[in-house]
Amino acid sequence: MVRREKKESISRDISNKTIMTILAVALIVTVMGTLVSVSKLSSLGTTQLLSGAATSSASGTSYINITSATSITNDISTIDFGQGYVNSSGTNCSMVSDGHVNDTGANCMGFSNVSSGFLIENTGNVNVSVNMTCSGNCTAAQFIGGTSPKFKFTVRPNSGRAINSEMGTLDSSASCNNLFGVASYAGLNNLWTDVTTTSIGLCGEDYAGNYTMDFTDSQDAFVVDINVSIPVDAPATSYGGAASSAVFTFSAVSGG
Amino acid sequence: MAVQLVVQYLPFQQYRVVKNKKTFFFFKLKMKNKFSTIILILLLLPLVSALSLQGNLLGTIIYEPGKYIENLYHVSGTDKDYVVELNVEEELQEFIKLVEEENDGYRLEIDFPDYYIPVGRYSFSIKAKEVAPPDSAMGSTVEVSKLFFVEVYSYDKEILTKLSAENVNLNQPVDFNVHVESRTYSDIENVKAVVTIFDQDNQSITTLQTTQERLPKLTSTNLQTTFDTAGLKAGVYNAQAVVNYDGKEKIAETSFRLGSMNLILKDYSKELTQGFSDFSVVVENDWGENVKNVYAKLFVEGQQMLQTPTLDIIEPWQEAKLQGITKVDLPLGEYQGMIKLFFQDKQKEEKIMIKVVEAKEKNSDLEDKLAKEKKTQGATVMLILTISLVVILIVSLGWLFFHKGRKQDDF
To answer: A88, B199, B263, B344: least surrounded by Cβ within 10 Å?
Structure first.
């Protein structure tokens, strides 16, 4: 009798161990198999994994009213070359907000290297036109002074300029159909133009109903870069003094 | 008053935060200090300037005496001070105003008087603009505007007109619609149209009279007539409507198609690359109904190179692309070929010229594509096997537990 109980107890022990072993194997196989499958699918860079759809038989009436949002964002709203001076052995210090410094000689002393211009992005849901106005000291003579100073700007699509600060994703296509400036300023892109107080159409023409700055995320941004050339005889200004102040206003217009 | 912050990078991990160009405070950042780290992250974020003006789209506003329009606008997206302006041309100034509401809301009220104003196109705009900081070194602000146009029509009788006709199958009638829109504050007593149909050689086939109607001011109407196409061959036809309104005339034109059960070859790949090559054919359904079971075969020098997968349906008048991959072992050069189009129970042959060119990077793309397809298949098989194994194991374990339980019960 005692022998029989012992035998059954052993049989029960073996059976439990077998079950545990099978369970462990099952878990290992499942985890490994899933990992292999997922890694294979992931390596394909596909998003076509598992999907499902839900259905509903309820009925009703819904209304939707999408308002028109005229929105503009300047993702880089200041350009600050910092403080410095022109090396007295040189004639001028040239600095561009696209990272080009000292292209005309290593004469810029102490200034900061700036690699991003004003990044203008259409963040609304309608196409717009964009104008730029400068207020304050907007000529080279006022802003910098000295002999033959330069204070210029140019416009380039961010798809090419590739400043990675857009609210949306970085543009993959040129904004404004790669046509910057209106008739009188045609061909602004990559052309250095003097900064003035006159309002300049950068993209599209509002009164002509020509709103070419697309709101599509892949082509909704452009960059206004600034180019300054400070002559060696430019007068020193107190930091933040009115003599070195220029404020650019970017104005987006859409149809009402 | 909003604060404009200018962050300047200075040596020795120091940052200066300037409020309106006057030094506001100055501190040293130490990376070990958590608070400083948070501040550093905040300071390194680019300074963003944004503004948004939202409201329902009004479009061009047609002036009508006594008309009243109200629309709400909302300004958002900025933490700076801003102002909202209404700029109106002198002629409209006393009829348009902007009223400030709660929570950055603005109500536009347009209240045209009971009399007519001079004919023309007027404009006004609503502008929201950030208040410029007084003295930043090279800063910027943003503005957003909505520009509106008000059209004031004349008393002279004037219309806008558009002629339209749908494509139909052979021997089916074509309905012509002449849309007439009044652009005057005067009623038009009689408006009617004469529609002339031209064939492919620009020869007049027939002339049709539309219905005639009275057109009250600033309204629109549709004048209709029907053309019987019996006996005409398939193809594209032109139509011209001369619209007569109280003695004045305007012309509108359109074209329409008489379709037959046919597929039109619109385009095809003119080149094949040696090795694996893509080939595609663009066809157009020339029939006013669905064409089913469409596929194409490519023959080069009498040899079948490819049969595309079958498209179940091409919808009326629509284009579709049939494509596939073929292996090209032919030497470089130009060959005579043929595309056979199969649709419904019909087939059609089109002679073509095709050029075999050297394989470039294109082939590696194709190989990548094939490799990717194989990988996808492998992964799918692996997934199915795993799921099957799990199911088998669960069933086995269930079976084991069930029998074990039964044995214990028996005991």
So the answer is: A88
Q: Chain B: give the shortest CA distance to residue A32, in Å.
A: 9
**Which range is least confidently modeled, B16-20, B186-190, B280-284, B391-395?**
B16-20
Domains in chain A, number: 2
Give the largest CA-CA distance in chain A. 118
A28 within some domain: yes
Q: Could you list the residue range(s) of the whole structural domain that residue A141 is in?
A: 72-253
- Determine the residue of chain B that is closest to A13 in CA distance: B404
C-alpha span between B297 and B342 (Å, rounded): 8
Residues A89, A186, single domain; the answer is yes
> pTM to 2 decimals?
0.59
Domain containing residue B311 = 263-359
Q: How far apart are CA B220 and CA B214, in angstroms?
A: 10
B257 near A CB under 8 A: no
* B87 and A CB contact within 8 Å: no
Substitution target from B82, B140, B373 for chain A, most A beta carbons within 10 A: B140
Contacts of B145 in chain A (CB under 8 A): 70, 206, 251-254
Query: In this structure, what token pair is assigned to residue B265?
Result: 């070859």
Distance separating alpha carbons of residues A191 and A156, to the nearest angstrom: 9
pLDDT digits (tens, 9 = 90+) for B133-190: 655 578 889 999 999 999 999 888 989 999 999 999 999 999 999 999 998 989 999 9
Any domain includes A174 = yes
Model confidence pLDDT, tens digit, residues B119-128: 888 999 999 9
Which among B132, B152, B172 is the end of a domain?
B152
